[in-house]
């Protein structure tokens, strides 16, 4: 179990307890009564256990206690402690953890100050982090609701020019996030419309970095057809913080790789690396996730698209060794590119291992993209079906794709 999963389970246990109005001592008493063990510890020990389990520092590993928790809450044990179920519950728990939306108390025409904007930004950061663990079909409605609340604030509240521009920038960020969730869920028309909303808000806010990022999102969605738009995205944001430039340059590299342009891809990857090396920690939160591992993964993906396995495989293997399994969707996707690079290098057995691992990680993740990638790779593996490893993978994939398409 990863640290992120451990924290998610701890938050779930605490939220379920508090939802019932129980204190930790009462929870401990119920657990002790439910444990089927004549030698069970005394109540004070159970109180200590509950505190530790809810801190997220100590996992509930004893099957007796997991069963007792499920019985006390009246829930299925797999539902309570399962990886995707626990983390997905975070979407519902956000409303509990972030009580009192900053716009709830505002009435039409009321003056909006920077303190409200600051609280909305803090909320946006916390909600954006859900994308590390959940697929777009799980997060889209939540992100869209946040966007609509901020748009309503702009339309109905009264604000000075500085606050208004900050709200417009926040609309751009939120529309990008909602668009990304829609894209991840496979709702491409919705995503394209949200990216345009984001671009228009960024222009009104006079925020070149967000304008460039809006174009980069749309270019990524367009694939090879988005190469010119991806180039324009970093040209617009030429004066943006270094980490933002690195993000836009790597996305442009990807667009040119998909378009089959190795020289331009190599040049842009080099510029992205230079931009990241010059970073001094001034990037906005929406670009803060870009680091050396991210650039290495993007480089590996680019060289895979260009069918250069000798360059792709070392980059992807090195980066994925440092990539936490808790980022299940993204790691699953990146493993499919490693599988494709292995196929290009005729390393069929290693490709099977990578694709099989991708399927394991993507199980239960509300994103269409891992499933789409696996289907493409299975088509490429058809000539090797007589290989035992490939035959086994295809049998497993058939069941996996059937379950994924109905979940």
Describe this structure as you would to a colleague.
The structure is a single chain. It contains 20 helices and no strands. The protein is flat. Helix 16 (309-320) packs antiparallel against helix 17 and helix 17 (328-344) packs antiparallel against helix 18. It is mostly helical.
How is this structure best summarized?
This protein is an all-alpha fold.
In the predicted model, the low-confidence regions spanning at least 5 consecutive residues are 91-99
Task: Give the ordered list of helices and strands.
Answer: HHHHHHHHHHHHHHHHHHHH
What profile does the largest beta sheet have?
A: none
Helix content: over 70%
β-strand number: 0
Q: Which helices and strands occur, and which strands form pairs?
A:
Blueprint (H helix, E strand, L loop, with lengths): L2 H17 L4 H11 L8 H13 L7 H11 L3 H5 L1 H15 L16 H15 L7 H21 L4 H25 L2 H17 L3 H15 L4 H10 L5 H17 L3 H16 L14 H14 L3 H12 L7 H17 L3 H15 L6 H13 L6 H19 L1
Helix pairs in contact: 1-6, 2-3, 2-4, 7-8, 7-9, 8-9, 9-10, 9-11, 10-11, 11-12, 11-13, 12-13, 13-14, 13-15, 14-15, 15-16, 15-17, 16-17, 17-18, 17-19, 18-19, 18-20, 19-20
